[in-house]
Amino acid sequence: MKKNILLLSVLAGLFLMASCSKTIYFTQDMRQNLTKNYLSIDKIQFYNSKKIVLRRNLSYAETKVARGKINFENGQYVEKIIIPKKTPGVAVGEGKDYINVAFEDGPHRFLKFVLNDKNEYQLSAEKWVQGYGKIKYDTLSYYIEPESSNAVLKVIRNDNYNLQKNTRRLKGRTVSGH
Questions:
Q1: What is the H or E stretch that residue 136 is in?
Q2: Domain parsing of the chain, residue ranges
Q3: What is the per-residue pLDDT across 23-78, written as a single tens digit (0 to 9) for each?
Q4: Contact residues for 112 (Cβ-Cβ < 8 A; gap 6+)
Q5: How many CB atoms lie within 10 A of CB 104?
């Protein structure tokens, strides 16, 4: 009997720890709540849910000017840009069903996340071919590697998203002259 209670306690503790993750998926409902309370989306700290890898093939001449990690694979030079899981990013543009998020400084250095069927914002591409998503990043064409295609936006768990931005605390009034 004691073993069963101990086992149930351990399982309950593991379940509780798993449900208390520091980050949660950013949903359309959260975005609507922000809008309703006049909070700007560019003030929200976003994180990617999984590692994002962008790649492009380079000619020999391009290898000298590439700013990412360059590998030699199957007789070709390949530039990779790796955005590790939980990298902080900020919104730099938005539309009704998408948010552009930048994980580094610079013009045109952002990724587009679109609203998916789960009501979350998922990494998007101009087109998908055999699991690879073609995008423009920093004015160049890159491909999102297939294992990155399901990356979604997350935010730190915080109940303040349910509060209004402007809060006043009153100190009260006293009778004057006494």
A1: strand 132-137
A2: 20-49+84-162
A3: 999 999 999 998 898 889 999 999 999 999 999 887 655 555 445 555 555 556 88
A4: 98, 99, 100, 123, 124, 125, 135
A5: 11
- Give residue 10's pLDDT: 35
Phi, psi at 80, each rounded to 5°? -120, 140
Question: Which residues touch 16 (CB under 8 Å, ≥6 apart)?
Answer: none
- Triad 53, 54, 58: Cα angle to 5°: 135
* Residue 23 structure tokens: 């980050």
Statement: the pTM of the whole predicted model exceeds 0.85: no
Please write the tens of the pLDDT for every residue from 134-160: 999 999 999 999 999 999 999 998 755
Mean pLDDT, range 109-129, rounded to an integer: 96
Residue 85 half-sphere exposure toward CB, CA atoms < 13 A: 9
